[in-house]
Sequence to fold (868 residues):
Amino acid sequence: MRWLNLPVLWFLLMLCVVSSRAQSPDSLMEQANLAYMDESWNEAMDMYETILQMEVESAPLYYNMGNTAYQLGELGRAILYYERALRLNPSYEPALHNLELARNGIINPIESIPVLFYQRWHENFIALFSADMWAIALIIGLALCVISIALFLLKQIIWQKKLFLTLAASFLLITLIAAYAAQRQYHRLKHKQEVIVMEEVLTVRSAPAGRGTELFRVYEGTKAEIIHRMDSWKELRFADGNVGWVDAADVAQI
Amino acid sequence: MMSTLVYMICWMLLGHATVLAGDISFQVSTPQSVAEGERFRVTWTLDARPDDFSAPSFEDFRMISGPSTSSSTSTQIINNQVTTTVSYSFTFVLEALEQGTFTIPPATAVVDGQEYASDPGRVEVSDAPATPAQPHEPREPDTAQTRPGPDDIFIRTEISNTNPFRGEQVIVSYKLYTRLSVQRYNIERLPGFQGLWTENITPSGQPVISQEEVNGQIYRVAEIRRMAVFPQRSGDIVIDAMDVETQVSMPTEDRRRPGSIFDDFFGGSPFDRHRTISHHVRAEPVVLNVQPLPAEGQPDDFTGLVGQFELEASLDSRSMDVNDAATLQITLSGEGNIRMAELPEFSFPQQLDVFDPQVADDIHAARSGMHGSMIFDYVIIARATGTFDIPAIRVSYFDPERRAYRTASSGPFSLQVEGDPAVAGAYPDGIMEGRWMAEDIRFIHTGSVSWQQAGEVFYRSTRFFLLAAIPILLLVIFLVFWNKHRQETADIHGMRMKKARKVAVKRLKHAKRLLRENRKEAFFEEIFRALWGYVSDRLDIPVSRLNKENVASAFDSRQIPSGLATRFLDGLHECEYARFAPAGDESPMDTVYNKALDTIVAIEKELRKNTLVR
Fold:
């Protein structure tokens, strides 16, 4: 029974480490927020970036950086930071709202290919939470499922047994769904790499070289998925399904 | 002067026979009269593209060469109506063999499957040029010769600048100098212009005739061709020779008087005796030494414009509603290679949709060269409200006179766009000014923040797996404990079941003792307990739940025949009845004892049998 305490101890240890590190980011965050309120956007942005250099991150930090970039009129960066905030927390409502607003500023926005309604529901459901949140849901679901099984076994009265059996099955289902969604989100995070166009106007070419045929133009803030890399070039797929090469320096990865 | 012009026009008209068939004109042109032995040209001109052309046989003449074919296309725009004229000509060079008047038979041509024939031509061959009958004055020995000498007629090429910059306008003028009377001239071969872009600026109509003195001689001078040329590369560029065929009237008698120069240019008095001969004149090639444009100080947006230019730009409205259109007109005017003018790319604010410009030109050829203007119309549609600055429009050019690059500019402009920004659609208000609907974005997050290591993911981390393992481990532990507990409780029942018979036997023995002692009440109670206790233990029914219904159902579930249950219940009933009934009314005690014993044995037997069957 003693070894059971190990993960708990380990977890507590982690919390201690994180909180001791967080002391500095917290104060910086506070200062940066004050600078933002003073409308000294550049100063605020510098301080937010200092926090990032400490190798910590959080959805609110990216969200605040997005707002600062927005105020600076840097559309591409604003969208990039909102996307990063949403990568950590896909259901972060203010970031969703501001991203929507910032996207309105994209010139000639690309119309995405419409997907079938059940695919959209599926995607939206998965995107409800980040991989970590789904993972927490998974653990909680599993714990509740275990408790329900125990109660089912202990109870003698028939209707109570029925109740706990149903609950155990439901929690098991929730756990499995959470595991599936967490796995999908994790895969998305690790393998689906997306970029935001940072140049005001970017010419997409047919080949990874300056002399490739100019195919079409995309504008600052447009999102695309990386499908290949070659030297300093990236092959991107845009929301409308079009594919082409751009210089990696002109885009920023989410 | 007037008479000579009239004469000339008449002469030219007579030389042309015109056939008008439908819209197609098919003409033959021959000289009216030639000298015996002289070579002359016969030209058929057709103003359509012929599918086939066949010349007549020239029986009375000797064909020297031909046919040489040439075609020309000219496009005219008058009141926005475009007229395209094509002209095909077939030229033969013939030699007159005998004197007399000859007819050149009609030629035929097929145009669009239809055959056309020209009119016949008429040529009068006069006597061969002979040695001059009249002795000539020693002062003008050439006039007496049969062929004009090089001093009598020649072409001078005048070039405004033999050392121009690349792209600079150079005026090339060919002047025909003559002391003879030239009736007609025809440029046979235009000079070639490798590396030059040329514009013909020869004034239309008859050439103006002036006088010039060359080497003490008075010449009549006519400018027969004037061109503006623009060198396209640096280095030496050769303007090839130009060949001109002239029809010169040679006097047979020297009737010239110094005062008759004016009358004589185109042949003098018609009553003079003269003959017309054709004479070939050549303008010698000239070389332009073209300098490259200086690299020093060349602006980045320089596109090769050389000359003197001005730029004027105007915006037709300074304030407009969103989604309305305004026109920015840029007029580049001046002198030089204006036809090559392009506007450099210049950037408009993002919120303005600007279409590719419509380009119109208004370029004139003047004696001084090419001048005029290029007009660029940009249509601008505002997609957002606000004040937008259109930057100044700049065009760089090289001024060859000052030998320096210059920039013509106009603007900047500011455009005020009003209206409902919602109509503007995709563009937020005033991106450039940083005024982006600031009231609309949500405020920053100011509360506490939970930090995580950059790039760290909780899912699938060790921490995650350990945390996920906790409930599973707890379940396993619970199941272990629960199972153990269940086994233990199961044993208690087993014990009771095993002991049930012994207990019953013990109680029955005790009842027998009581029977012997004849303690009636205690005996029935003991029998009752023995029966009750045995069923309770053996069938695992808690004492608290022991009642007749439960017993009946327990018997039923264990497949004990219902007769046995009745016997058991009857036994119980008898005991109860005997315990509380008045004395003497009860069944005999030994019968009750035997009945109870039989019942227990029967139940035991049934249970054993069922167990074995299972």
About this structure: Chain A touches chain B through 64 residues (CB under 8 Å). The first helix of chain A runs from residue 5 to 37. The radius of gyration of chain A is 23 Å.
